[in-house]
Q: What sequence folds into this?
């Protein structure tokens, strides 16, 4: 599930519903650090629900931010692809909210999965999808809708996304969901 992330009333980017508040827990949206200005934001989920959120973790180097909010009800969180590994040539879909268009999508092909070191998770996913302002922080999904990355920026003619496994590890290290 995707979310619009707004600061000071303007739609500034997208986010991924990481934890939908199941079993009474608070909800968690992951977006880019450059999308969230300050420590507070408003999120609007794809079903129209609106909630105030606060930044509970930020990593400017990886361009990630975690926003915690009080969900009005339990919601389905994003399904993260854990296997098989993403391969060059796979079809991917980026979802965002450019220019106020809610849930816009763009398709492309994975061009590279760049590793920091052999045997480690890829540092970036590079795909030939077009990311306009408003796609930042939104999901990069495989053809079945499973999350493979969080869109970050364009570099040359390719989009960069933080791989879902790296986001998952960052969430575990930097944010322990808080019970109500």
A:
């Amino acid at each position: 599930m995707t979310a619009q992330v707004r600061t000071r009333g303007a739609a500034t980017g997208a986010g991924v519903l990481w934890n939908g508040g199941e079993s009474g827990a608070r909800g968690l949206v992951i977006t880019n650090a450059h999308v969230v200005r300050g420590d507070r934001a408003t999120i609007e989920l794809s079903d129209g629900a609106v909630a105030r959120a606060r930044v509970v973790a930020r990593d400017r180097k990886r361009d990630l931010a975690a926003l915690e909010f009080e969900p009005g009800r339990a919601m389905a969180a994003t399904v993260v692809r854990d296997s098989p590994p993403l391969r060059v040539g796979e079809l991917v879909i980026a979802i965002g909210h450019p220019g106020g268009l809610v849930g816009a999508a763009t398709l492309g092909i994975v061009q590279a999965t760049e590793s920091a070191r052999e045997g480690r998770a890829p540092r970036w996913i590079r795909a030939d999808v077009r990311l306009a302002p408003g796609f930042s922080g939104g999901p990069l999904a495989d053809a079945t809708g499973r999350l493979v990355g969080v869109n970050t920026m364009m570099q040359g003619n390719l989009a960069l996304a933080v791989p879902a496994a790296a986001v998952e590890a960052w969430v575990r290290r930097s944010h322990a969901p808080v019970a109500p």
